[in-house]
Amino acid sequence: MNNKLHELTKPKKPLFVIVYDQLYKLIMDGTFPTDSQLPTEPELAKIFGVSRMTLRHALALLQEDGLVKNIHGKGNFITKFHHNESIDGLEKLGNPLYKCCTKKIDDIELNFRIDLVTDYAMQVLNRQMAAVVALERWYKNHDKIVAYAFTMMPIEAVSKLNLDLHNEKQVLEMLEEKVYELANSSTIEIKRSNSVNTPSLKYQIFCREECDLFLESVYISDKYPVVYNKYYIPTEFSQIKIKTCK
């Protein structure tokens, strides 16, 4: 990229909007490709000949548009931009992780255990059960952990879904896809969390960064959820989209 972009003259519209327009074009034409890091704020301010306050205002607009993401202590990065407006968001039944995680998942590590029934499990699964199946999934991109999921399932659902818990491929197919094909509805609550990194977990998925937390109940019948999922996606890899229509 040329060190000198065309000079910004006194505009009729605010200067930060002009800077926004210039950066937008550079992102769209691939000068700053997806996942690349922008120059530092002092460098960008110098390139555009503006104050850092003006530059930050422009960057804030790009962040709002989902084109740039600021990672604390690292800088500003170009995020994936979805040109296809037909892509379904959270409004359609399906695994929310694949709709909201900007990293491509190329491997999933699965662990499960059988737990005693707790008050919390009874509350979120809304039923009496003999035991609870607790499943952990670690989502990886090039061997790096980019998301984590914790699932609770009534032990009774194992036979209902014809699951062999020792058949990892079958269990993953059910949790990732088939349960959504069988379901008639789900509810999702979105929160922010920094509690996923604990010594009891096998892996750490981020350092000092918050996660977007998706609390999901998936229903095959209207009585109670067949699974209750907690999806954790670090904010640097999270992009939430909801498509509405009249």
TrEMBL record:
Keyword Membrane annotated: no
Keyword Transcription regulation: yes
Keywords: DNA-binding, Transcription, Transcription regulation
Domain of life: Bacteria
PROSITE patterns for this protein: HTH_GNTR
Residue ranges constituting the HTH gntR-type domain according to the UniProt record: 13-81
Protein known as: Fatty acid metabolism regulator protein
Gene that this sequence comes from: fadR_2
